[in-house]
Amino acid sequence: MKKTITLLTLLLLLPAILAGCGSRTIEEENKEEATAGEIITVGFSQLGAESDWRNTNTASMQEALTPENGFNLVYKNGQQKQANQITAVRTFIQQGVDYIVLAPATETGWESVLTEARDAEIPVILVDRRVDVADKSLYSCWVGSDFELESKKMTAWLKAFTDRRNISPENLHIVNIQGTPGSTAQIGRTRGLANAAREYGWDLMTEVSGDFTENKGREVMAALLKGYDNINVVYCENDNMAIGAIDALESAGKRVGQNIMNGEVMVVSFDGVNEQSLQYCREGKISCIAECNPLHGPRVQALIESLENGETPEKFNYVDEGLFSCVSSVKNVVVDGTEYTIQEP
Ligand code: AHR
After folding, report:
1. What residue ranges line ligand 1, CB within 6 angstroms?
2. CA 137 to ligand 1 centroid distance, Å
3. Does 330 lie in the same domain as 209?
4. Which domain holds residue 226?
5. Which atom of ligand 1 is nearest to the CA of 53?
6. Most CB contacts within 10 A, which of 57, 218, 275, 332?
7. What is the CA(140)–ligand 1 centre distance, in A?
8. 287 and 228, same structural domain?
9. Is residue 179 domain-shared with residue 248, that is, in the same domain?
């Protein structure tokens, strides 16, 4: 009885099965077979979701490392904690993934887990920030931004702006709202500002971490306003903190803009990803944004494909970045012999 029902069901379904088979071209079938055979499993330890930049970076990876492109992406969010990322990498090793992609929260403390990955013969690709390890063979390659160069462009812009307005250097009273302490982005952007302040004689009053988040940016700015009554430049190490800082400034009755010798507070920042910060830049609330490019997905895909082909890609792969501003008096800046034309946000 059971056999008869199964046979009947099969006969009824046969036309549909045949029609289904006929609707796929030979190329489609070949592609499916090839993909099924060569799927590459990638464990991606992202450091968190603290900013719009970070979310765009995650989306870029997810859009590039797809099954259609031959990848099985295993994503883990580290919630801004290195310990979570170390656990994620160890899980990837246990799972036997083909590649590990790591966006490290901070630079130090990676030797052990990266040695474990190397012992398991799993290549590691770093994205965005770097790791501070003596043995550079612990990772295959890195792709990301030159954070200190971003800062050099920003400080060159600030120097050009003050020169055009005849503002003397000692009249710049700057506070730095920094990113996550010990992250490559924080280290580079902080160093660039400190060097420029020393070189030009700016009054860099203090540096406080806002952890790259809007809430912390708001909180830290409110506290700074209580401690200093002469702040006229706020250097924010990313756009989300700038948005929070502007909110705190305006809530405290301050005007945000370029007229810094007449009571306005100038805000400058980094990223250029978030629509609100670009809009603030168009309105002049953020005077200048040094671009930080988050679109690493296709680059990581190309690096994996190159490793798959037995090639040795460049160890350090930098992305191109510009500078956004609506302040018409500065049209370009020159840093280390390269000219950067200021773009409209
Ligand atoms: O490491 C890149 C930085 O990290 C971006 O500037 C910031 O927005 C992010 O959180």
Report:
1. 50-51, 53-54, 128-129, 185, 212, 238, 270-271, 292
2. 25
3. yes
4. 147-293+322-343
5. 8
6. 57
7. 22
8. yes
9. yes
Beta bridge partners of residue 340, listed in sequence order = 333
Mutate to test the pocket of ligand 1, among 46, 56, 128 (most ligand atoms within 8 A of CB): 128
- Give this prediction's pTM: 0.89
Say if residue 155 is in the same domain as residue 250: yes
- Tens digit of pLDDT per residue, the chain (345 long)? 333 334 444 344 444 433 443 444 444 444 444 344 589 999 999 999 999 999 999 999 999 999 999 999 999 999 999 999 999 999 999 999 999 999 999 999 999 999 999 999 999 999 999 999 999 999 999 999 999 999 999 999 999 999 999 999 999 999 999 999 999 999 999 999 999 999 999 999 999 999 999 999 999 999 999 999 999 999 999 999 999 999 999 999 999 999 999 999 999 999 999 999 999 999 999 999 999 999 999 999 999 999 999 999 999 999 999 999 999 999 999 999 999 999 999
Ligand 1 atom with least separation from CA of 103: 1
The first and second tokens of residue 336, run together, are: 């280390």
Same domain? For 182 and 272 the reply is: yes
Residue nearest to ligand 1 atom 2, measured at CA = 185
